[in-house]
Write a structure and sequence with these properties.
Length: 284
């Protein structure tokens, strides 16, 4: 009357084995989903916050005295104190990249391509990346730390309890200051690198024309789209670097510390800089 004794035990083992495999697959898919959800969450926060910064910056009642003071303070720190570092980096780039490009193009008999090569390599590609990394490392991590300490220490909640908006006081002015500084430092970096490269090339005999003629060749090598997209690239890099650092600090949890905030913020900032460069390169 009934199945053999070993039959039910065999089905139980198969069921247990299938359940174990199913649990492992479920845990694996859950880990992937959690990773994707975390990354998409930060991207959506960036998109929403970025639109909020643009919208609030156009309202006159946003620019109260405290917001203006924070904007001026951040702009002075990023563009003012960062100008010397940018000029030094531009000078080193001129010595190591621009002068070498001029020399080897002349050596290969392609001196007429000097302007287009310098525009493509220095102004379009290298300048936004290096300026973005400089702003990220020098000032972005500082803003990330400051805002993160305010968030984890409870000061942000205290500001909200007092009726103050941390978004208007911290995110909007700092992001816009990084935006202005990104354009300013990008232009100054390009000028420093091209001028230094010209001086080194002229001293070594690789160039014989004047500085005016050299810049004329560079400017004429730019297309009509370059006059719009290259400054826009500087602006977008500065905007997203500042926004990413402020958002990363403002969304810090109580479990976060400096040891967790800085590596995560720096990796996100580098990803932002490289993504913007690649997307604009596809357009150019």
């Amino acid at each position: 009357m009934g199945a053999p004794p070993g039959t039910f035990h065999g089905n139980d083992d198969n069921t247990s084995s299938n359940a174990t495999i199913g649990d492992r697959i479920a845990h694996f898919l859950g880990d992937i989903g959690a990773l994707v959800r975390r990354q998409v969450w930060f991207l959506l926060i960036m998109l929403g916050t970025g639109w909020g910064v643009v919208r609030e910056s156009m309202r006159s009642n946003t620019w109260r005295r405290t917001v203006r003071y924070e904007f001026q303070l951040t702009l002075s720190a990023v563009a003012g104190r960062g100008l010397f570092s940018t000029m030094v980096m531009g000078g080193l780039t001129g010595v190591g990249v621009v002068s070498q490009a001029i020399y080897w193009l002349g050596f290969a008999g392609m001196a007429k391509m000097t302007g287009s090569v310098l525009v493509t390599v220095i102004v379009r590609e290298l300048a936004p990346i290096l300026v973005g990394i400089l702003m990220l490392g020098r000032n972005g991590m500082l803003s990330l730390t400051e805002v993160g300490i305010l968030a984890t220490g409870g000061q942000v909640r205290s500001m909200q309890a007092e009726g103050l908006d941390p978004f208007l006081l911290l995110v909007v002015p700092r992001t816009l200051a990084f935006t202005v500084a990104g354009f300013t430092l990008g232009i100054m970096f390009s000028l420093a690198s091209l001028t230094t490269g010209y001086i080194i090339s002229r001293a070594s005999g690789a160039l014989s024309n004047s500085l005016f003629s050299f810049y004329y060749d560079v400017v004429t090598a730019m297309t009509s789209a370059d006059y719009l997209l290259i400054p826009l690239k500087f602006v977008v890099v500065g905007f997203l670097v500042g926004l990413g650092c402020c958002v990363g600090g403002l969304t810090a949890s109580n479990e976060d510390s400096i040891a967790t905030l800085l590596p995560r913020g720096f990796s996100r900032g580098m990803l932002i800089v490289m993504t913007v460069s690649v997307l604009f390169s596809l357009k150019l």
